[in-house]
Amino acid sequence: ITDLTACFCNCTSLTSIPTGLFDNCINITSSAQCFYNCTSLTSIPNNLFNNHTNITNFSNCFFNCTLLTSIPTGLFDNCTKVTDFSYCFYKCTLLTSIPAGLFDNCISITSFRSCFYTCSSLTSIPNNLFNNHINVTDFRNCFSYCRKLTLPTAIFNLTALQTKKPNMTECFAIDSTTNS
After folding, report:
1. Under a CB-based contact definition with an 8 Å cutoff, are residues 110 and 83 in contact?
2. Percent of the chain clearing pLDDT 90 (strictly above)
3. Residue 179: pLDDT over 70
4. Is the model's pLDDT at 58 over the cut of 80?
5. CA-to-CA distance for 117 and 74, rounded, in angstroms?
6. Measured between alpha carbons, how far is 83 from 124 in angstroms, rounded to an integer?
7. Closest Cα to residue 152, out of 132, 180, 175, 123?
8. How confident is the model at residue 39 (pLDDT cuts 50, 70, 90)?
9. Rounded CA gap, 135 and 117, in Å?
10. Using one digit for the tens of pLDDT, what is the confidence trace for 148-177?
11. Rounded distance, CA 157 to CA 162, Å?
């Protein structure tokens, strides 16, 4: 198995993911839409992607998992080749926080577009969440409509922002007329 794209897409009755589910699938390169629209999913096992050093795509992976309340620390620690996290946690409306270091080892990322879009219960972001990401070109709508969010003192690598000049359009938009 090399591709988990849409593997459990629209499994609206799926409430949990068994520990070790993908442990023997070491050649996976994509987990795009894997748990897309799993509206009853409440948790993610800590080591779900531990053996997946070749994954490059997590776009839409947990899109619209509306009952998901947390992201395990270290979920993506071994996924060092990932380039795309666009829409990954889009509309995870019960998600309240992001663990420190969640993306630290994923230094090849180019897109966080709409990654946490409409995570309406999200209240905090860890300091330096995107500090290791010098290749990102797209932060569009990353935290749009996260109305309860309090921003940390540092979130981005300022040198990378000045060098790459990523698209930051409505990164923190809270309504259709405000870009803040």
Report:
1. yes
2. 84
3. no
4. yes
5. 21
6. 24
7. 123
8. very high
9. 21
10. 999 888 998 888 888 889 999 999 998 755
11. 9
Render pLDDT for 62-95 as a digit per residue (tens, 0 to 9).
999 999 999 999 999 999 999 999 999 999 999 9
Convert 123-154 to b/e letters by CB count within 10 Å (16 or more is b): eebbebbbbbbeebebbbbbbbbbeebeeeee
**3-state SS string for the chain:** CCECCCCCCCCCCCCCCCCCCCCCCCCCCECCCCCCCCCCCCCCCCCCCCCCCCCCECCCCCCCCCCCCCCCCCCCCCCCCCCECCCCCCCCCCCCECCCCCCCCCCCCCECCCCCCCCCCCCECCCCCECCCCCCCECCCCCCCCCCCECCCCCECHHHHHHHCCECCCCCCCECCECC
